[in-house]
UniProtKB/TrEMBL annotation:
InterPro entries reported in the protein's UniProt record: TM_pro_TauE-like, TSUP
Classification lineage: Bacteria, Pseudomonadati, Pseudomonadota, Alphaproteobacteria, Hyphomicrobiales
Pfam families in alphabetical order: TauE
Localisation: Cell membrane
Record organism: Bradyrhizobium barranii
Keyword Transferase included in the entry's annotation: no
Protein name (database record): Probable membrane transporter protein
Major localization listed first in the record, in broad terms: membrane
Length: 256
């Protein structure tokens, strides 16, 4: 039996190899800088395969990768503050998932490209929320992040920008972020499974692409400390920008 024999019927060996390549690059960015994997992966991967398939694929990979981090995050996080922001995700994730399940693939790709471009601008701005705590604001940020996650697994920048701007210890902020995304990913898994987005195809692809993504994360982590973080972050931003441009549906006739 060859790799081609176990692939989903709508996914060729060439597409699977292309997804692996994209996963390695996005995993490397994640391993070194701690961010950027979904912002690189989704625009490119959704131009190679169906957005619903690659969103589910990325969710499964990230969900499995995040599980070992949750016990430590549970001990160190401000669980009360995190619970408030998770309430927003409880609403935002199903709404985003609904749109992913009903929109036409090309429409979804346009939305993903616009979302990622906006989130890249947010990252480049260095935005951090430094105002007062308000429950409604926390729920709103959680809802926005959950919606982005449900639609395209790109909910990182809003929640990271919010938590890192709070006057709390960095170790607590990181634990809050990890715990939030553990809950958000769980909501996404339930929503995706309910709407049929978690399929045999996405699970089979996750077994193929997941190890390559993990190798990319490990490779990126090994580079940390050996290269300038400022330079590597600039490279990540450049890769995200190129992913947005290359993933635009209007370029299908030229690039694909």
């Amino acid at each position: 039996m060859t790799l081609a024999d176990v692939l989903p019927k709508d996914v060729s060996l060439t597409v699977a190899m292309a997804l692996c390549a994209v996963a390695f690059v996005s995993g490397t960015a994640r391993g070194f800088s701690g961010f950027g994997s979904a912002l690189i992966f989704m625009p490119l991967a959704s131009s190679i395969a169906a957005p619903r398939l690659v969103a589910a694929l990325l969710l499964v990979i990230d969900f499995v990768a995040a599980l070992p981090l949750l016990p430590d995050a549970w001990r160190k996080a401000d669980r009360k503050a995190t619970a408030v922001i998770v309430l927003g995700a409880l609403v935002g994730v199903p709404v985003g998932t609904y749109f992913l399940s009903v929109l036409e693939p090309v429409t979804t790709r346009w939305i993903i490209s616009c979302f990622v471009a906006a989130l890249l601008l947010l990252l480049l701005s260095g935005w951090r929320y430094r105002g007062k705590d308000h429950a409604w604001l926390s729920v709103g940020i959680g809802g926005l992040s959950g919606f982005c996650s449900g639609l395209a697994q790109t909910g990182g920048p809003p929640i990271v920008g919010y938590w890192l701007g709070r006057p709390i210890a960095p170790i607590v902020a990181r634990a809050n972020i990890v715990l939030f995304f553990g809950a958000s990913d769980f909501f996404s898994m339930v929503s995706y499974a309910t709407t049929g987005l978690i399929s045999r195809e996405s699970l089979v692809l996750s077994l193929i692409v997941g190890p390559v993504y993990a190798i990319g994360v490990a490779f990126g982590a090994s580079l940390f400390g050996r290269a300038s973080e400022k330079v590597f972050r600039a490279i990540c931003y450049g890769l995200i920008a190129m992913a947005v441009i290359a993933g635009l549906p209007v370029l299908d006739g030229i690039l694909r």
